[in-house]
Every structure is written in structure tokens, then in C-alpha cells.
Amino acid sequence: MKIRKISSDSTFKKQGQTNNPISQLLFNLNPRFTFENFVVGPGNKLAYAAAQAVAKGKNPYYNPLFLYASVGLGKSHLAMAICNAKAKFSQNHKILSISAEIFLEELMSSIKKKDTSFFKERYRNNCDILFIDDVHFFAKKEFTQLELRRTIDYLISRGKQIIFTSLYPPEHIKDMGEDLKSRLGSGLVVQIDPLDYETRKKILIAKARAKNGLIPEDVIDFVAKSEISNVRCLEGILNNLFARAELMNSPIDLTMAREEVCKVVTQRERKGYITIDSIKECVSDFFKIKVEALASKSRKKEISLPRQIAMYLCRKYTEKSLEEIAEAFNKRHSSVIHSIQVIKEHLRRKDKIGRQVNFILFKLEGKIVNNH
N or C: which end of the chain has fewer CB within 10 A? Predict the structure, then answer.
């Protein structure tokens, strides 16, 4: 089965523009995320059972299915597993898996073109299963929320399945209309809790086996006891251990494991301590400007450059989304993306601005050390 992955560049392509009938039905599905390779534990047992029930079409009341959890706990994996299971057992299902950000971009593109017919065709008439990832992204976007409400009503009334994931439960998503909150929570809402020790250990063993790698039991035990619940972080630690062992031509041991876990824990502490406000203060102090100027409309270089640096640092040192960072500086999220790219280039070139950024980085790191 061929699965065609779409991007915003392929927005609004009419059905029939491809010769593959299956690829017309499946969008952005990642075949790696299945029920078979999902590790079940106490914290995700209910979510796993609910996802399987939806995949088997057992209960029409589980619609929409709303999964929420912190980053890296497997909510997107389960949602994608539903889509993959549906695709496997029925090639007639029209499945659309999309991020909230792409949904917004496609809606805005249709409005800009003054033609919403392709958008409505894609998300309503040509969709049996709709999965939208990170639905909390729609906070403060009133028009998009309105369109999403209409889409939900249309699909539900025709018995189509909807799946949402979010960092927060519907009632706790700030700046989201009550009408939309009620629709998001009208089906089954399930939380995924942080991973316990045994589940972390199972995940590490499963990931190591998938990579055909051998890791000593004491290393697996040590990493599992680190209380790192983010599955991507756990996999990152394993990847680094395998890479170091290969490059250094030495076996994986506890010393390596301690160093890799320390990197993750230090980064986590760093992000917990440094805030957008503390970054603003540090940057404004360095450039001798008022903190308020960073969120002003001024485009003068003496203001725009510090603002770009501050945005870059916010992305590096906090867990705030692009939208949240943009809001803190009264800019669009595209401005944050541009600023990050600009500052990364200066750092790469090691020019004067790059050296200034490194000095500010040094000051921020110093604050972390002095406060631990």
C-alpha cells in the first residue's frame, strides 16, 4: 500500500490528480505508529483500550475521541495507530491525518484565494476519519474555531470518526470558545499519565530490540529510574548510546548512561528555570534598552535585533510554542521562525552578532548554575 505524505505545498489538490487510488484516500499516515509497537502501562492503559475500540468501530459514542497528555507520552502514536488500523482493514476509508497548524494554513489559503470549495471538499465530503494533532493550537483563533465547529458537526452528523490530541483537556484550553470546547469533549476524553518505572523499562527494551542493539540490564535500569517520561527523550538517549559505542568502539556502560541522562535532565532544569520574562530582562540589559521595547512595533535595528535574539532564546530555553512566543512579543509565529533562522545563521558564521548571542547564552547559563 502506497501512502502519500502531503505538505502545505500540496494543499487543495483535487481528488483524481494521482493515478494511485489508494493514495487518494490516505494522507500523512506514519506506518511506524501501530498498536503492535505501543508499550502499554498503567498510565496509558485506558487510552490504549479506547483507541483500539475506535479502530474496531465498537462504540459510536467514542466520537470524537480526545486524547490529552504532556509532550512525548504517546497520544499522537495512539491516534495514528487508529488511522493505520483503519487503513489496513478497509482500503475504502478516506483518512486525513493533519496537524492543527496545517489545518489553519489551509483554511487561510482558501480564504486568501476566495475559494473554500476545495477546503470543504477535503475536510468534509472527502473524509471518513479525521485526526487533528495539537488542537490546543486553535486557541485565540476565533474564525478557525468556527470552521472547526462546522467541520465537527458535519462529520459527526454523517457518522464519520474524529480524533483529537492536545496538551490539555478541552475545558482547560485557554481562549477557546465554549461551543467548541463542548464539541471537543462531547465524545470520550482520556488522559495519558506520565510513565511509571516499569513502563519506561519496557519501552527502553522494546526500542533497543527494534534497533537490534544490546544494552546491559544495569544501564536499562538506570535510565528507567531517571524518571524521564518523554518517550522521544528515552529514544534519544538510546540513539546517543549506540552512536557513542560505535564511534568510540567501546561497550555501553553506566558511565555513558549517566552522561546522556545528565544532558537531558540539565536541559529539563534549564527550561524549567528560564522564562520568557527572564530572557527579555537579560537581553534588554545587554543591549541597554527597555524591556517593553522588545514587544513594541518598532522596526529599528537597535530594537529588532535584540527582539530576534530574545525570540531565539525563548525557543531554545523554554517549552513555549511558536504561537506563545509570538504573543509575548506581539508578533506572528512566522516572525519567530524567521528570527530563529536569522540568529542560527549568525551563530554559524560566528560573526559579531553571533558572539553577542553566545555572551548572552553564557549569562543565562550562569544564572542556571548559580540557582542550583
Answer: C
